[in-house]
Specification:
Rossmann fold; Chemotaxis protein chec
Length: about 290
């Protein structure tokens, strides 16, 4: 199953429809526009947000929205859009990631969310998770989607993180699902005993290992050097994600007969990141070290 391009869920806070709203829709982004007085209720009801654009014409009301957004969504990228080049009211300047003109909105979204790299990574992320679910647990994926968002905790009820690195590059994969979903996968392995939390982390870690293996091979095919070491899986997801909080991330959601599973990818690099053609599906070799 090949996913469509990742969806960027954009919140626009403006009194009237700005011209760049049409540009964003033409770029196939999911756009919600709301006035400043309704913005907070919209955010509370939103399933997922990738980025917020606050129109500078909202003035003091826009300032209040920025402050409230930061409380509700501590790691959401907020961009102040103003053609006069202002960074917004002084009291919220520190909360605004960037201030841009209306003409630069789409380029800014691409830059903030690392869209060019993550768009190429989306099919690799989904394909790797699908193959692991099928080959290891005999589980079919009924549907999938990918979207951008700022990395935050938690991804799901039970999560396992795996890291990999190379010169000037570091990546993190987080796989998670509700306990009942991972319990069904554990049962497929032949166990009739109710799994412990550690065993559920092992299930998520097995999928994360395969996902990371495919992403690493694609990065190597793109000319990057990835350190050849046993994959390190971290059960303590909070500590492993703390330094990633707020960074751009690609999230894949895969629906199975047992429920949904999420796979999150964060890549930090000193320069451009390129993915090459990935070899045929295969489960990665080597032991997995759980902490």
């Amino acid at each position: 199953m090949t996913p469509e391009a990742p969806c960027c869920h954009v919140l626009i806070v403006a009194r009237s429809e700005p011209a760049f709203q049409g540009w964003l829709r033409a770029a196939h982004h999911d756009v919600t526009r709301t006035g400043p007085t309704e913005a907070i209720d919209v955010v509370r009801a939103a399933r997922c947000l990738s980025i917020a654009l606050v129109d500078g014409s909202c003035g003091a009301e826009g300032s209040a929205v920025v402050g409230a957004l930061r409380v509700l969504e501590p790691h959401l990228p907020i961009v102040w859009v103003a053609d006069d080049g202002s960074r917004g009211p002084k009291e919220v300047t520190a909360e605004i990631l960037e201030s841009v003109t209306r003409a630069a909105v789409i380029a800014t979204i691409r830059q903030v969310l690392h869209a060019s790299f993550y768009s190429a990574a989306a099919p690799q992320l989904v394909r790797a998770a699908e193959h692991a679910l099928s080959a290891v647990f005999g589980c079919a994926v009924t549907s999938s989607e990918t979207h951008y968002r700022a990395c935050r905790r938690p991804v799901a009820q039970v999560c396992t993180a795996l890291t990999f690195a190379g010169p000037g590059l570091r990546g993190t994969i987080v796989v998670g699902a509700e306990r009942v979903v991972l319990s069904e996968m554990h049962r497929v392995t032949g166990s009739v005993v109710r799994p412990t939390v550690a065993q559920l982390h092992d299930v998520a870690g097995e999928i994360a290992n395969h996902v990371a293996g495919r992403i690493k091979r694609a990065l190597e095919a793109g000319g990057h050097v990835i350190e050849n070491r046993p994959p390190l899986v971290l059960r303590s997801v909070d500590s492993s994600l703390r330094e990633l909080t707020g960074r751009p991330a690609l999230v894949a959601r895969l629906d199975t007969p047992w429920g949904a599973l999420s796979a999150l990818l964060v890549v930090q690099a000193d320069g451009p990141v390129t993915l090459g053609a990935c070899p045929p599906d295969e489960l990665p070799e080597g032991a997995v070290s759980f902490l």
